[in-house]
From TrEMBL:
This is Cytochrome P450. Keywords: Heme, Iron, Metal-binding, Monooxygenase, Oxidoreductase. It comes from the Bacteria. Pfam families: p450. Signal peptide: none annotated. Residues 63-82 are annotated as: Disordered. Belongs to the cytochrome P450 family. The keyword Iron applies.
Amino acid sequence: MSHTPETTRPELFTWEFAADPYPAYAWLREHAPVHRTTLPSGVEAWLVTRYADARQALADSRLSKNPAQHNAHAHRSGRVGIPGERQANLMTHLLNIDPPDHTRLRRLVSKAFTPRRVAEFEPRVQQLTDRLIDSFAERGSADLIHEFAFPLPIYAICDLLGVPAEDQDDFRDWAGMMIRHHGGQRGGVGRAVKRMRTYLAELIHRKRADLGDDLISGLIRASDHGEHLTENEAAAMAFILLFAGFETTVNLIGNGLYALLRNPGQRSLLQESLARGESGLLETGVEELLRYDGPVELATWRFATQPLSIGGVDVPVGDPVLVVLAAADRDPARFAGENTLDLARADNPHLGFGHGIHYCIGAPLARLEGQRALATVLTRLPDLRLAADPSELRWRGGLIMRGLRELPVSFTP
Ligand code: HEM
């Protein structure tokens, strides 16, 4: 029996959808690849689900990142955005600006946040990873989100930025308040964002008088044709590095470990390869995990500044466009065996880090943390088992991110 698209249209943004959005995305890719929908907030937006359209939209300069381009109707009907977005939008940062401002700020931050700085950070990431595993290794059980995936990125970014060790637990608390936003505590997010911003502004002010080797000092020092970041810009930049680099990396580690636990054959191959001292499968494996169940389900907002057509569908000026990375990265037109986890996948131009001028500036750090976290857990806790029925696991219900609330595991101490 054949169904018309109308009769089978899946419901989006339900709890069932949050647990496994992939069947709904497969339906959209096939029947309504550029689809106008009403988001839970009441805002109407276009979802772009095919790989080719998604890649093109991410690089389309007619799609602005500036929320001021948002149409009046959507403004009236509700909020736009990512957790903490209202607060974050009070400042100018890379994810809400367009060229030429974006070009200038991105060039300046790139001078400080270099691949070399990240590579030199590897021993510290390994140390943090081991320290966190030490804290539960004797117990034989753990919640790998709360005890591992959540604290690792926050301590790593704090260290890289140069937040003194004695203040890093404050950031852990604030980040916890931000991530719990998805449980509905919006006031807490505002407070957390405000405290983080105030702290960073003060830290930048102090560091200006006493520059060191850390990334904040690097941001203050960075110059391009005589131009520097202002103190405000440096604070907004430090904030967005924390904000964009925190929950994403929690989800890379959490979703990644979960996918490995659910795919024992692939996990064994990776463990064997690590035991031989190889790194190739770990590297392609992290890319595959970004494709298969990546941390960012939908790329951040874009707004049409001119009438444009995406995949043959006309998008009016001012309409918000959401590129569904999770759908694009499982498009069978680009990825053979799209629903299969294949850690050795060689041809893998996934969109997990985005594409175009807003391509993730933290990708080298995310890869480093993801690789060290997965390799160390699989090596130190070789018989790791999921300690819950997959149907009982809860996913955080944000719009942009995709990640587990908890990941209970057991293992031989
Ligand atoms: C941009 C994903 C980790 C900082 C992005 C974008 C994606 C992304 C998809 C583009 C968004 C868009 O175009 O709408 C991820 C994933 C991560 C991760 C999956 C972890 C696995 C990090 C880390 C940092 C970071 C660790 C920094 C410490 C940023 C910044 C931008 C960005 C600043 C904005 C760049 C720009 O607009 O020019 N990221 N990210 N991210 N990411 Fe990441």
